[in-house]
Amino acid sequence: xxxxxxxxxxxxxxxxxxxxxxxxxxxxxxxxxxxxxxxxxxxxxxxxxxxxxxxxxxxxxxxxxxxxxxxxxxxxxxxxxxxxxxxxxxxxxxxxxxxxxxxxxxxxxxxxxxxxxxxxxxxxxxxxxxxxxxxxxxxxxxxxxxxxxxxxxxxxxxxxxxxxxxxxxxxxxxxxxxxxxxxxxxxxxxxxxxxxxxxxxxxxxxxxxxxxxxxxxxxxxxxxxxxxxx
Length: 230
Fold this sequence. Notes:
Layout: H1 19-34, H2 40-45, H3 56-65, H4 68-76, H5 91-97, H6 101-110, H7 125-130, H8 140-156, H9 171-175, H10 179-187, H11 202-209, H12 212-229
Helix pairs in contact: 8-10, 10-12, 11-12
């Protein structure tokens, strides 16, 4: 699945006519972009306009930078936490793809997050947590954190386990060749018999990639499902 480079382009707000208002607005923007949540209350008390809190561009910068306190502050202040950011994904999707377990955990616990919001390409947070494509600076730690996030989404939210992307892929398609994630998804009710729009089952993806352990696991799951349906 392609990954777009996160945009840091923030749309300009209206320019206050009074020089003092404009200076406050600049200070507020700088505090938001730097993640300095402690500076916000004094600025707001001095009359700074909080309009930038609802600018998706500001939220994306803060989320991508991993500013946990600022993200939660903006979410509580009316930032578009479930809307596609300039990158095309929601805040939860951006933090999941970055394997930021701390921010994902706090978003799930402390913000009104919709885990099933589709982003660019119909991708949802569950697809990103299941996806085994290498990340920038990837390593065992990143992949383990993604497995942790996938576990939380499956066990603690109402994530739609069989949701499909615009290409028809389910999280199970994306989980190959990670046997642990495939097993987690199957245990959560993932359907191994859903084809993507190219006609491939998850087991086909595993077979084409030569991942025998995943092939065996998915074959057993598919056989069991067919037996129960008969």
